[in-house]
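Case study.
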Amino acid sequence: MNMFEQARSADSVSGPPSKGDYFFDRAFQWLAKAFAWAILAVVAALLLEVGSKAIPAIKDYHIGFLTSTTWDANKDQFGILPEIWGTLYSSFLALIIAGFFGVMMAIFLTQDFLPPRLAAIFRIIVELLAAIPSVVYGLWGIFVVIPAIRPLANWLNETFGMIPFFSTSLSGPGMLPAALVLAIMVLPTIAAVSQDALRLVPYRIKEAAYGLGATRWEAILRVMLPTASTGIFGALVLGFGRALGETMALAMLVGNSNQISLSLFSPANTLAALLALNFPEAGETEVKVLMYAALVLMLITLAVNVAGTAIMTMTNKQAGGGR
Amino acid sequence: MKLLVSAASLRVSAACCVSALLFWTAAVSADIGSSGQMLLLQGAGATFPAPLYKRWIKVYSDERPQVQIKYDAIGSGEGIQRFLAHAVDFGASDAALNDEQLAAAGEGVKMIPATAGLIALAYNLPGITEPLKLKRDVYVDMLLGRIKRWDDPRIAASNPGLTLPKRDIVRVVRRDSSGTTYAFTNHLSAISNDWRDRGPGVGKIVDWPGNAMAAPGNEGVSARIRLSVGAIGYVEYGQARRLGLAMALLENAAGQFVAPAETSGQAALKNNLSAMPANLRLFLPDPKGEEAYPIVTLSWLLLYPRYDGAGRADAVKDFVTWGLTEGQTHSRELGFLPLPDELLRLSRSAVASIH
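After joint prediction, the assembly is written out as follows.
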């Protein structure tokens, strides 16, 4: 009995891999590779599909589609400037709100303010926000947020009506309720990613700051935050990307009004809401035009997300080098 | 870190999938109708008469379980499209068919006036209990976006007793292709040259100037009005009544302020039926008469002159004839206008020619 035969005998637990093991190993590798490539293929197919369906509309409406403000299916005049504006404006407002609270939350949960177990619970609760369906956020916005902010909004309008941000009264659905709900929806993304960014900063850097006589807040604001700033910036960009594509809650809350207004209280529209609401009843031309709009939305979100991921990869490298 | 990001984006994409699914199932379920042993009649179109048609279908099929009828309230525009594409057994439209569509359909369509209704200007102004009175030029200018605030002196002029709020007027309009919009803009064009020549004009979808909020269907518009303080919009009268929305008194062709109600609607119909053409397509953009409510429209069922398949023609005929007789008694309760007898006779004889 040679060594290998001995190894294969029944009373041994370990042994060299059999042909079957080799086969499974190989097969799994191939499968994993195939799926990895399939993801890329799906993205490419999506872009291709939407792009090819949008081509007729691109030919008909050119770049003017992006700068025109009319949406008139009767006269076949289409433009999405108000929707682009609404998408960027609502996402930007949401980003300001969620960015502030998200980063504060990340500091609170990572900088030894809470016992680790309690911090973990908080963290889970914040992440649970991401599990709430968009429709529920929309309903909550309609029945809770709008009535709650209406008195304040209308007071602002009456008192500071000359400031463009407050130049209209809030009747119901509008930019501000949409942005508030959107902020809550992107908060988990921003909070979670900034927590990771802060956690990546080696603890000894903070200890060094303490050693130099810094107070807790000096250490956090002057040392920890700047060190983690690229990661936090990445979190904001990712949050922005998520906000851009959010559909259902915005379709319910933004007011579906085809106009460009700086006012926080006036109804507006976003690209995603336009797509979601107009597709079911769209005629032949309108479908092509909506595909063009979908392509524009995809390109905007893609660009933002690629930027966010690139920034985060950069941070990871930097933080890794610091160790 | 990467794990977290991907978990977050997973949730994001899951949420997107769910909302996308919602829309697709809504869209797909509208197209699928499985016909087993029973005869299934599929209809689609206007949301304006939908409450009445749904009532008809319920009462009618309770008595005749062998016939199943479905009606998708998806707006007149899409209803016409599906009818012309032969995707349904009957269509419904508050704008009938336009000349172009009539030409395209040729002999392939019967337009049957099946009911009539009023279009109300409903608004949401808490604290204003007296109904608002609106002059013709005033409500045209409100809808054109020229009168922007509720406390505008021109609105106040015809409402001396009311303290109007210092709020923006927010208009709520139809987003989908709609016969209600058609009838409404047809009226506005009839009473205002500005609307007809320099404004949006007449159409099932028009480009509303300014800050109009767009909502789907009569239900969507009424719900949006109820939700939005300072909103005004045009909706089918029965729908507005069911939701308890306040409705404005409008100035009619005779210069009287008239409230939307069954009597004022009946007056508008009766005074103006003499102009009925042979194809039964009569629009009433500005009905005459002291008591006539100014915005009234007929609503048509679109039928094919001949149907294939055993019993299909008879089933359609029986259902529509029932709607044109017994069905009319349900109109009042739902806020629609029972058609005058002479018009019902015309409609029924048009249905009788189907085979």
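Observations recorded in class. Chain A has one domain: 62-319. The mean pLDDT of chain A is 88. We will return to this complex in the next lecture.
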